Each structure stands twice: as C-alpha cells, then as structure tokens.
Amino acid sequence: MSVTRSGKAALLAVALAATTVFGVAAPARAAGAGTLPAECPFTNTLCLFDGAGYSGARLTLRSLVPSGTCVSLVDHGWGGQARSALNTGSSAAALFANDGCLGGPFLVPAGGGVPDFGGFRPDSAWVR
Q1: CB-CB contact of 125 with 73 (8 Å)
Q2: In the chain, domain spans
Q3: Which of the residues 7, 14, 56, 113 has the least number of beta carbons within 10 Å of its own beta carbon?
Q4: pTM for the full model?
Q5: How do the pLDDT tens digits run along the chain, 128 residues long?
Q6: Which CATH superfamily is domain 5-29+40-127 in?
C-alpha cells in the first residue's frame, strides 16, 4: 500500500487523536481467567501496560480509521516501555520493535492478551 505525504499526515493525526482521546495512564489489576480486566474497558482497543500481568500505567490505543493505523509509541513516551497488552478488538493487533510498524509483528490476539512480552519491547503498534 502506498500512502501519500498528505495521507501519512492524516494517519498520524488519527493516531495522535486516538492516543489523545484514549491515552490514559492508570493503575491496573490482573483479572481472572477468561475475563478482561476493568482497566481495559473500551471495546475495539489495544491496552498496553508498563508492567507484566496487565499492571502499572496503561496506554489505550484505538484507530479512528476502519483499515487501521500505525501508532508510534516513541512519540507518546512509551517507546520500549510496554510489558503486557490486552486487545478488546475483533482482529489481532500487532506490535513492532521499531518505530514504523515495519518488520516482523508481535501479535496480540483478538479478544485476548499477552500477560508478559518477555524480552520484547515495542516501539510502535498497528491497531484497527
């Protein structure tokens, strides 16, 4: 897919708006098996946590574009900080080790989560 300079600016604006509207830092608790914690209460979002087990501060991401958008975690002060994620969307979200959503993705399944990234530290995320 080729995106023009103005298209890239529009995607960036959407990403910034999404993280501005939904970018919330809050403490989190782990939930029981099969349930999503109350700390990720929005539908169709990707909640990133700076602690393993969905704990610590939270950054909530949501695309306002149906086809999805790449969000720079570096630009929002979250580069390399996320340690776990919950995805309340109906399609997988993808995290990337670089700041451009390029390369091999680290997937967060639809309606699920990854409680511990291990050594992986994302710098960008693709959300729908």
Answers
A1: yes
A2: 5-29+40-127
A3: 7
A4: 0.73
A5: 444 433 433 333 333 333 333 333 333 333 444 455 577 888 899 999 999 999 999 999 999 998 999 999 999 999 999 999 999 999 999 999 999 999 999 999 999 999 999 999 999 999 98
A6: Crystallins (2.60.20.10)
Tokens of 117: 């990234």
Instruction: Report how far residue 67's alpha carbon sits from residue 55's, in angstroms, rounded to the nearest whole number.
Output: 29
With the C-alpha atoms ordered 102, 103, 106, 111, is the resulting torsion angle positive or negative? positive
What tokens does 108 get? Answer: 């967060």
Which residues 6+ apart lie within 8 Å of 7 measured at CB? Answer: none
**How far apart are the C-alpha atoms of 71 and 14, rounded to whole Å?**
9
